[in-house]
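Researcher: Please translate sequence to structure tokens.
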Amino acid sequence: MTQRHSPLSLPIAVMASAMILAGPAASRAADKPTSYAPVAVTEDFAAVKKRMEGQKKDIAKRHRDLLESRYDLSNRPAKGVTMSGGKAVQEGVRVKLPAGVKSWQDLAALSPEDIRNKDLFPAGFLPLPHPNHAEGGMTFPKFHIDEINRQEGRDLTRFDLDYDLPDHFLPEFPAPVYLTTRPDLGDVSKRQLITIMNYYELFNGLLNPKQLEGLRLLVTPFPQQQFNQTEDRRSALPSRGVACFDCHANGHTNAATHLVGDIRPQEFRHRIDTPPLRGVNVQRLFGSQRALKTIEDFTEFEQRAAYFDGDPVIATKKGVNVLERGSQVHAMAEFQALLDFPPAPKLDVYGKLDPKLATESELRGEGVFFGNGQCAICHVPPYYTDNLMHNLKTERFFKPRLINGRMASADGPIKTFPLRGIKDSPTYLHDGRLLTLEDTVEFFNLVLQLELSDQEKIDLVAFLRAL
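Model: Translation complete:
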């Protein structure tokens, strides 16, 4: 049964969220909001670990109950549809309809005011909380944790919480790597996860020395809020930290999650669905909502700020890696700019479908995309982005509420992500709340009041899979 009306938050979680205003390490006894996390931690590490391990089961159950109330989490791969490396693509609308609503068409026929007043906005369309929103921090899928441990002996396991979404909804792992400079080679990763242990062997001879140095820095672990040597870390043992490619695995994404560092208080911080680095050479905005203007800005911001919840004071304590802009940042950005979109054999040089190669459904979907769907207003070919930000104003459809420590309210402006290769990078929207492309089509059909027919939706998904 879909839970629509309750905030799905335990009283303890509400209290914790109200008091942990500055970030996961903030004092639970704070009398008033503060932007800063405490530097001098007075609780013994062993006591913190024991306490948080004891809370882990209940926190995980509360979040799992939320996911199951929102979504159909079953493994239902689409017949004959795979990502670039061969992993099956999940099909179907997984967001559950509100109780009493018979169909998506019936829901879309209502006005935003009716949906808001009757509390009929689907729970799966509301912002998605972090697995433990009051705590936050980087959280990695187990398959990535296991491979890093195998290659490097570096453990990205957190003792306080685990990653939340089922593996079958996530991008393939390890993802193929395509280079703009050598499209003739196809996937240059040789089906390996690129790490500090193998990057040189894989790329020596394909990259120039500057690019190779940039890649080295992208796979080098540096201290981060949850993974470092201090007593307020969330790893059992002192950690060397995380690497850029621990989230952007193989220059793509493994759907690792985190919270944005630039919002206070804690309950208003947005969950991040790690975006792919593929195609950053054609993008002009970086960060889902921060609107950073260059890939160099983004690279520097991540390690100086995002790694530490946007708190430079705590970053100093934990050992922030201050990259040198003129050499290190530039080298890292130069490699990232080589990461290409996956092949799309049905597209011509304009980014449109070749009628000789496309199916009838894909061609009809292209018509919807550039017609009734109005998708092309923001997602302009050939890369299907306008390099701008747009505010969908989803708050028209629901009343603000606290959901497992996350205040669901206005999303604000969101970057227009490129749609090239979109089937390779589930889940969707900036916080990953939409599990499939079908969910995404239903979301935009409702929020933009497009009134698409069932057949138009099917065809539009077919077109998106061909990009």
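Researcher: Any highlights?
Model: Residues 45-70 form the longest helix (26 residues).
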